[in-house]
Design goal:
The complex is a heterodimer.
Chain A lengths: L3 E4 L2 E4 L5 E7 L7 E6 L6 E5 L3 E2 L7 E6 L2 E6 L9 E6 L6 E2 L3 E5 L1
Parallel strand pairs in A: 2-11
Antiparallel strand pairs in A: 1-3, 3-8, 4-5, 4-9, 5-6, 7-8, 9-10, 9-11
Chain B lengths: L2 E5 L3 E2 L5 E8 L7 E8 L3 E9 L4 E3 L7 E6 L4 E6 L8 E8 L4 E4 L3 E5 L2
Parallel strand pairs in B: 2-11
Antiparallel strand pairs in B: 1-3, 3-8, 4-5, 4-9, 5-6, 7-8, 9-10, 9-11
Classes of the chains: A mainly beta, B mainly beta.
Chain lengths: 107, 116
């Protein structure tokens, strides 16, 4: 299985801050990477797919980059509704695997 | 707008079989791939498997010996069966649609607790 490792596990930030979350795959996955946002009691919500493509309806302050083994999710200017847990997922090969999550908290 | 809704027992006894159904509305199940994913505090998000509308399946090797995913096109539903459950199978179970690159529509999730 491909292991996905996110860092940091948690981060504290303020509204208006720029935040970057990283995800590393244990082997190359080309651009087969997605990012999800999850709030308590809800299902994950797709933000980014193919490493850098913004899902329809997702605000442009979210962006993704990377290929191969190293990827980043950037939120350019945090809004109150962005405080949540973020997960990366690889869909390069089965079983599709997720990172352990990064919890974004209000400072 | 496609919507998915999980249903099934919230409590299952150890060694028994967990059975869940996902009802799809707003679109036909007779296309695309349909998946099950679970989330537990201990193991995070874990992909269980998928079924294609043709009936072909693919399962996580870690669960393959215990998992069956099936399709009922007449009811626009697909189902999950997980046999010989233990406390480690306690999780929130999600159904989702897979479009080759993305899991774009998810159910709200249903908590299944394995306990006697």
């Amino acid at each position: 299985d491909i292991q996905m490792t996110q860092s940091p596990s948690s981060v504290s930030a303020s509204v208006g801050d720029r935040v970057t979350i990283t995800c590393r795959a244990s082997q190359g996955i080309s651009s087969w990477l997605a990012w999800y946002q999850q709030t308590p009691g809800k299902a994950p919500k797709l933000l980014i797919y193919a490493a850098s493509s913004l899902q329809s309806g997702v605000p442009s302050r979210f962006s993704g980059s990377g290929s191969g083994t190293d990827f980043t999710l950037t939120i350019s200017s945090l809004q109150p509704e962005d405080f949540a847990t973020y997960y990366c997922q690889q869909t390069n090969s089965f079983p599709h695997t997720f990172g352990q999550g990064t919890k974004l908290e209000i400072k | 707008q496609v919507q998915l809704q999980e249903s099934g027992p919230g409590l299952v006894k150890p060694s028994e079989t967990l059975s869940l159904t996902c009802t799809v509305s707003g679109g036909s199940i007779s296309s695309h791939y349909w998946s099950w994913i679970r989330q537990s505090p201990g193991k995070g998000l874990e992909w269980i498997g998928y079924i294609y509308y043709s009936g072909s399946t693919n399962y996580n090797p870690s669960l393959k010996s215990r998992v069956t995913i099936s399709l009922d096109t007449s009811k626009n539903q697909f189902s999950l069966k997980l046999s010989s459950v233990t406390a480690a199978d306690t999780a929130v179970y999600y159904c989702a649609r897979w479009l080759q690159e993305i899991y774009d529509y998810w159910g709200q999730g249903t908590l299944v607790t394995v306990s006697s």
